[in-house]
Each structure stands twice: as C-alpha cells, then as structure tokens.
Design a protein that fits this description.
Blueprint: H1 3-8, E1 12-13, H2 22-36, H3 47-60, E2 64-68, H4 71-86, E3 90-93, H5 98-102, H6 106-109, E4 114-117, H7 127-131, E5 139-143, H8 156-169, E6 172-177, H9 180-187, H10 191-195, E7 200-204, E8 215-219, H11 221-233, H12 242-273, E9 280-282, E10 290-295, H13 299-313, E11 315-316, E12 321-323, E13 330-335, H14 338-342, H15 345-360
Parallel strand pairs: 1-11, 3-4, 3-5, 5-6, 6-7
Antiparallel strand pairs: 2-8, 7-8, 9-10, 10-13, 12-13
Helix pairs in contact: 2-12, 4-11, 9-12, 13-15
C-alpha cells in the first residue's frame, strides 16, 4: 500500500486533525455557504473575502490584510517590498527558514533580495545573533515558531528584545506566522500580543486551521496595497478566492479556540514520553503544540517501524522522517491536533509502548 492508503487504514492516528475526504469537505463548505448566503468573490472583490481579511488584520493588530494563493508567494514578495522601501537588498534569515529550506532558491533566482543567514540552526534566534550582522538590513524574517527545530520559540523577553533591535536599526521585521496561532498558545499570549512590534505577518489558512490552502499577508494599508498589486503581477490573481476562504472561515474560530487545549495535550504527551527514554523530544519542554522526536534508529528503520505498526496494529504515529546528524538516528515530527486531543489516554500509552519496544528490538 502507499503511505496514504496505509494511513487511511489506521484507527489510531497521532499527528494533526481528522482528515476529511473531498466529498466531506465540499459538503461542509456547501452547507456553510448556504447558511451564510456566501457569494463568490470576483478577482478578490467580495464581501466574505474582505470581511475575513479585515478580521485577521484586526486579530493581529494590523491596518490591513490581503489573501495570497500561497505563503511562498506572499513572503518573498513582502520581503522584497520591505527591502525596496529601505534601499537595502539584505534580509536576515534563520538557517532553518522555510525560504531557505523549501522554496528552491526562489528569492535568489527571481531577484527578490539577498539573504544572510544568522544564528545557530539548532537554536532560536537571539537579538545578539542579529546584532552580529554589521550590514544595513532591509528586513528580518522570523518564523514563529521555528518548525524545523521542533516548534521552538525564543523566550518572551528575547522576542521583545528582537523586536526592539529591529526597530532601533530600522529593519522591517516580518513574521513567518504559518503556525502563529500555535505559538500564541505556547506563549499564553494573544496573537495580537505576539504580532505587536512586527511590521508585517503572513498566516496560513490551512496548516493549523485546516482549510484547502492559501495565506493572508497583514501589515499597514499602504504596504498591503502594494503587495496585492504585486501578487496580481506575479500570477496570483485567481478568479475566485472563495473556496479557500470558505474552507478556512467556516472552522477558523473553532480551531483558534482549541489551540490552548492542543497545547495542554502536548504538555500531557511530554509527561507520557518520560516513560520511554529511547524517544527524545525536542524541545525539552513544549513551546507550541508540535514537537520533534529524536530516535536511535535510521530513517529507513523509523519508517519501517511506522509501517509495521500501521499494518499490524492500525496505529499511525508520524508521517515524514528525516535523517539526523548522527549515524543510525532520525527525527520525526508530531503536530498535536484533534487526533491526539480526542484520543483516549490508554490508546496513546499503548501506541507509545509498542513504538518504544520496536525501537529497542
């Protein structure tokens, strides 16, 4: 079976939210549209879209927000505009930035800006990491939380110091907020408090929210208007945004309200993991409702164990596995969502016991 078929056969799934089939998702969207009298937008002009954009802007404390078909388009465009405004092409990025790791050098090949890596790839940023850059920065792009190091964040005091540092040196501070809602729950702060001091922010409509796709970019009215024009120039001017916005808007409030519960369940999971010393979580204590598990087996062995537990026990523990720095070691990721929140404690403990035994074999 393919991974997708194997996952679909499992009754106990650890990561993420319950997956809806296309038929289930579209039926829910249709019912919600019927209930709320939703009409399609036309090239971004429509009541639902603009109300949702303004809702997100207000939630984050910005003047304005605009839909973009992807975070990949939204972020590099925002950073290029920030650099243009400050007459410097230099953008500071953490070594694990999504732009560097996943976007196939788009910023470089498309001539958006020049990137400078700052900080240690295994640690969140500090203000000192940025202060060590002597050059004039046009922008600083900070992921909150940092997915590739297990969802880590700097301390609240350090985050405030980073904001102050960027403000002092006149650099545009942009937030990669793909998982901002999760970070806010970990900080025990509102999204508006986390976003305060950033000049712009991108948020995803599908990662923690569960929509079909798409993103929003928030900032000043002038900045957002310029970005919207560039999204059109770059081919992002799709006829109807409504399917993406409906799929997010119909569950947005529910997902946001659940974030503290997801984080509490993550804290509980950490307590359970103490009984399994072969499974080492990173970070040592959760910063958001996601974590990485460092395993004493190769990536291939980790995937083999996952597939065995799925086929023989109906348990799906994780999706992707990555090579780790040491030989015969690997890293997997767990996002704590509805699946783990609704799972019986005993089922979680049984799955962890089977996993730990397989690692020790």
């Amino acid at each position: 079976m393919t991974d997708a078929e194997l996952l679909a056969s499992c009754h106990t799934v650890f990561p993420g939210h319950k997956t809806r089939t296309p038929a289930q998702m579209f039926a829910a969207m249709a019912a919600w549209c019927e209930e709320h009298g939703v009409a399609h937008d036309v090239y971004g002009s429509g009541a639902l879209l603009q109300q949702f954009e303004q809702k997100i802007a207000a939630l984050l404390g910005f003047e304005s927000a605009v839909f973009c078909i992807s975070g990949t388009m939204a972020q590099v465009t925002a950073l290029r505009l920030a650099c243009d405004a400050r007459a410097s092409r230099l953008v500071a990025l953490h070594p694990t930035s999504h732009i560097l790791v996943y976007e196939k050098s788009n910023y470089q090949l498309l001539g958006h800006f020049d990137a400078l890596q700052a900080g240690d790839r295994h640690r969140p940023w500090t203000a000192d990491d940025l202060a060590a850059i002597p050059d004039r920065l046009g922008a600083v792009a900070m992921e909150v939380p940092m997915r590739e190091i297990g969802g880590q964040n700097p301390s609240w005091a350090e985050l405030e110091a980073i904001k102050a540092h960027c403000r002092q040196r006149g650099a545009h501070l942009h937030m990669d907020g793909a998982r901002l809602w999760e970070a806010a729950a970990g900080f025990k702060r509102t999204p508006r408090e986390v976003a305060a001091g950033f000049d712009s922010a991108y948020v995803s409509l599908y990662k923690g929210i569960g929509g079909l796709g798409g993103a929003l970019l928030a900032g000043s009215a002038t900045f957002v208007a310029r970005a919207a024009e560039w999204f059109r120039r770059e081919g992002g001017n799709v006829l109807h945004r409504s399917p993406y916005v409906v799929s997010a808007a119909m569950q947005f409030d529910q997902r946001l309200a659940a974030m503290p519960s997801y984080f509490a369940r993550t804290e509980w999971l950490y307590c359970e993991l103490r009984a399994h010393p072969l499974v080492k979580p990173n970070p040592a204590a959760p910063h958001a409702n996601m974590l990485h598990l460092h395993l004493p087996v190769s990536r291939e062995r980790a995937l083999g164990i996952r597939n065995h537990l799925a086929s023989q026990h109906g348990i799906w523990l994780f999706s992707r596995a990555s090579h780790a720095a040491l030989p015969d070691s690997s890293v997997v990721e767990i996002y704590v969502g509805d699946n783990l929140l609704d799972m019986a404690d005993g089922a979680v403990r049984e799955a962890l016991t089977l996993f730990s035994s397989a690692l020790a074999a």
